[in-house]
Amino acid sequence: MTPELREKLLAGLKDGSIVPYLGPGVLADVKNVTTGAPIPADSDSLIIAMNDGKPMAPKLMYEFPRAAMNVELKRGRSAVTKFLNRTYGETVWTRAAVHDWLKEIFPHYVIDINRDAQLQDSYADIPHNLIVGIARLGGTDFRYKLYFWDGVAYQKTDLINPAIPILYKPMGTPKPEANYIASDADYVDFITELMGGFSIPPAVKELRKGKQYLLLGMRLNRDTERMVMSDVIYAAAEPAGWVLIQTPTDKERRFCRKQGLELIEADVFDLIGAAVAA
To answer: Taking the CB of residue 36, how many other CB atoms lie within 10 A of it?
Structure first.
């Protein structure tokens, strides 16, 4: 990454023309405050954590949604929700360097596919909108819930205030209410409605037109995450933006070319100038 490109990316994040899209890799330096164990964020670590520290069968290890579906079928959807609540809502973690870095920039619109609440904590000092993805809930055609943070607490709302920051958590969060997209069935429902336009609020559909995106901590070798990303960044500028992957596969290279994403062979910590503790 050249110094010129780094400055361009930082300037775009600050002025809102470039939208950060956060994947599991932004949590690579996060540890359990008590045990020092790393936070389970990527697919493999989530599956192993959900299975009491042991790998599951190879066909289930392919992707977290598949493993979560297996647990849901055997023990009920609540078992997956309890695991995610325990992991992201009840365990105390160290702060991610990426989130501290983002807090200094305060991008106006951030997409975070992780299920932890550190992004929300970064914006706790200022009012903001929160969009949380939901699936398989009756009584609504939409696959999101809207909240307004007034500086003290979240309140449910039906409208987005475009004048204040917008945090989009499509895969869910433990607060203010625990809602997650986790199993295959969740993703099928969510992505179907995402393609139909019912998983993103109208205000965000308007806001995202012509934006560029910077994918941070994202690998693009899993179909589910690629499908979500493709629809979330719909109506992006041309080119659509950049993705930081230190050692991309041929599959990722082809996908980036197809999506109009410039591949930068570096990781997010190269961008922010922080080192991951060994």
So the answer is: 9
User: In the chain, what is the straight-line distance between the N-terminal and C-terminal CA atoms, in Å?
Assistant: 23
184-196 and 64-75 are packed helices; what angle lies between their axes, rounded to 10 degrees?
120
d(CA 119, CA 223): 25
In a domain, 69, yes or no: yes
Give the pTM.
Answer: 0.95
Among left, alpha and beta (phi > 0; psi -120 to 50; other), residue 145 is beta
Q: How far apart are CA 222 and CA 48, in angstroms?
A: 18
Residue with the two structure tokens 């969009």: 131
Quick one: how far is CA 114 from the chain centroid?
Answer: 4
- Residue 277 belongs to some domain of the structure: no
d(CA 109, CA 97): 19
Domain membership flag for residue 76: yes
Strand 18-22 vs strand 212-216: parallel, antiparallel, or unpaired? parallel
- The SS3 assignment for 129 reads strand
Please give the tally of structural domains in the chain: 1
What's the domain range around 15? 3-272
Nearest to 17 by CA among 109, 119, 101, 103: 109
- What is the per-residue pLDDT across 212-263, written as a single tens digit (0 to 9) for each? 999 999 999 989 999 999 999 999 999 999 999 999 999 999 999 999 999 9
* Nearest Cα to Cα of residue 42 among 22, 57, 70: 22
Inside any domain, residue 278: no
